[in-house]
Amino acid sequence: MKIVFSSLAYPELGLKEVVERVNRFGFDGLELRVADDGRHLKPEFPISREILEILSSIKISDLAGYARFSSEDENERRRNERILETLIKIANILNALGVRIYGGEFSEENVIHKIADSLNRMSKIARDYSVKILVETHDSLARKDNLVKLIENLDYEIGFVYDPANVIFAGDSHDEVYPLIAKRIFQVHIKDFVIRDNKRIFVEPGKGVVPLSKIIKDLKVDNYKYYVSVEWEKLWHPEIEDSDVILPKYLSYLRKIINEL
């Protein structure tokens, strides 16, 4: 089990400075956000020599991409398929395990079939490039009922980014959702939170409602050999604690649990 962090933690820094922190803090790698805003990499291929040189000293666990497939518009879904294909090519060059995608928000059940159709169509491309497509438990796909329906229609080669904090915030539990996807998880997002005034407030590990010790224990029991990624979302929540302070705390907390087990 390897511990990485998401570059979401440093929206104010360039990629070189983020990579420096991976090495300085002693993480095993980086979950690299790839988005149109260019923080920290744009979904454009080929990759520049400068970027390749910056990333050469670290392991990239996965690309946190923003392809979504819940649109009713087939042209929009096809556009996102092209984005995903670009991300797959980037992941292959960077030797990343996979590419994170979203299901998106939806209310109509038939959308799940559209999501599955797009992902199943892209599965062969991902296989050809030795890259995993990873569906995050996020938005509507953080809910157990929707996940069950998606799994029924999804190629088995397609994996998951498991975010238990999203699952809990959506009203389900780790014990309910984890067994559904346990054998298909290739990345786990780690963050803790409390609810105040109906809002999710992110906190230090062990001080919130997410059963981090139980999650790590379950992963160890299942002989999980992939990545856990500290997802400290400073980009979306600039008010939370400074990443230089919190990331070493999460790293120490997780390593302690892993060593004790």
Q: Can you describe this structure in just a few lines?
A:
By secondary structure, this protein is of the alpha/beta class. It has nine helices and ten strands.
| Percentage of residues assigned to helices | 40-55%
Mean pLDDT, to the nearest integer, reads 97
Contiguous helical run count: 9
Q: What is the CA-based Rg, rounded? A: 17 Å
Q: What's the shape? A: globular
> Do you know the CATH topology?
TIM Barrel
CATH architecture: Alpha-Beta Barrel
CATH evolutionary superfamily: Divalent-metal-dependent TIM barrel enzymes
CATH class: Alpha Beta
**Sheet with the most strands?**
8 strands, parallel, barrel
Q: What's the end-to-end separation, in Å?
A: 12 Å
> What is the H/E order?
EHEHEHEHEHEHHEEEHEH
Beta-strand residue percentage: 15-25%
Instruction: Tally the structural domains.
Output: 1
Poorly predicted ranges (pLDDT <50, ≥5 residues)?
none
How many DSSP E strands?
10
| Global structural class | alpha/beta
GO molecular function: isomerase activity
InterPro entries: IolE/XylAMocC-like, Xyl_isomerase-like_sf, Xyl_isomerase-like_TIM-brl
Organism: Sulfolobus tengchongensis
Protein name: Sugar phosphate isomerase/epimerase
